[in-house]
Design goal:
Distance between the termini: 25 Å
Strand content: 15-25%
Number of strands: 12
CATH topology of the largest domain: TIM Barrel
Strand order of the largest sheet: 6-11-10-9-8-7
Order of helices and strands: HHEEHEEEHEHEHHEHEHEHEHE
CATH superfamily of the largest domain: Aldolase class I
Largest sheet: 6 strands, parallel
């Protein structure tokens, strides 16, 4: 399968496991009883998967895996790799094989493709709005349980950047941590005693006074939360050359350009993954 050069494939074991669980959920105890009842066991089908809307492709590995798990003899041809911009009517994939197996895999393939392509498409829209600036678009941990790796991969397909994957790979001190720790400086000081040499420390602030405390104590990244563009611009001015800046809160397609124009390094938005509409992709079949 062809792949956009700057996109590393998803780990095979994650793809296999997710597809197997989806097929198990769909097929249950008895399999596809509709196809078993209506179609001869030896019927062969040709399949064309095409988009009905413009967008960006993501999830092709999972779609291919769905067909292969149902029947390894199904021949799949990928015409449009992940990360590709598409227009209505573009063919993404063709497949040929046992009709019962093809139809049993159809919904799993389309569910993954539609969900992930929707995220990639929305991410690409955000990226386009800030292209005239130096800001990069980040995702968050606001993902569907069990699907984080795939949804974050879809963000990459749309031109975005991945934030931390979980609670395990970076320290992000938020307002609740600050409250329990007793303030910005105590929270940072405690974090520094526990962070490994390769672990980044980020801290959230919601005022310029808090930002000044962070700059005094030091951190790798400061998250400027729910600030107006004027406050963001001042925060960037104070932090410039001293700490990486990230803006979050109130980020929409309508506001993201103004946020980016303040000079922040990154803009994070949970909407990329929790509010992306599914891209309308269909599958047409012909029995031979």
């Amino acid at each position: 399968m062809t792949q956009r050069p700057d996109l590393a494939p998803l780990p095979d074991h994650l793809v296999r496991g997710a597809v197997a669980r989806s097929l198990e959920e769909d097929l249950g105890l008895s399999g596809d009883i509709t196809s078993q009842a209506c179609l001869p066991s030896g019927a062969i089908a040709d399949v064309v998967m095409a988009t009905r809307r413009a967008g960006v492709v993501s999830g092709m590995q999972l779609a291919v895996e769905a067909f292969r798990q149902m029947d390894p003899s199904i021949v799949v041809e990928v015409l449009t790799p992940d990360g590709t911009a598409i227009k209505p009517g573009d063919v993404l994939l063709k497949a040929r094989g046992n009709a019962r197996a093809v139809l049993s895999a159809e919904r799993t393939a389309l569910n993954f493709m539609g969900r992930m392509s929707g995220i990639a498409t929305l991410t690409a829209a955000y990226v386009a709005r800030v292209r005239h600036t130096g800001a990069r678009i980040l995702d968050t941990r606001k993902t569907t349980p069990g699907l984080r790796a795939f949804e974050k991969y879809a963000v990459l397909c749309g031109g975005g950047v991945n934030h931390r994957f979980g609670l395990f790979d970076a320290i992000l001190i938020k307002d609740n941590h600050v409250g329990v720790a007793g303030g910005i400086i105590p929270a940072l000081q405690r974090a520094k005693t526990r962070a490994g040499s390769t672990v980044k420390i980020e801290i959230e602030v919601d005022s310029l006074t808090q930002l000044d405390e962070v700059l005094k104590e030091g951190a790798d990244i400061v998250l400027l939360d729910n600030m107006t563009p004027a406050m963001l611009a001042e925060g960037v001015k104070r932090a410039k050359g001293r700490i990486i800046t990230e803006a979050s809160g109130g980020v929409t397609l309508e506001t993201v350009a103004a946020i980016a124009e303040t000079g922040v390094d990154y803009i994070s938005s949970g909407a990329l993954t929790h509010s992306a509409p599914v891209l309308d992709i269909g599958l047409d079949i012909r029995i031979l």
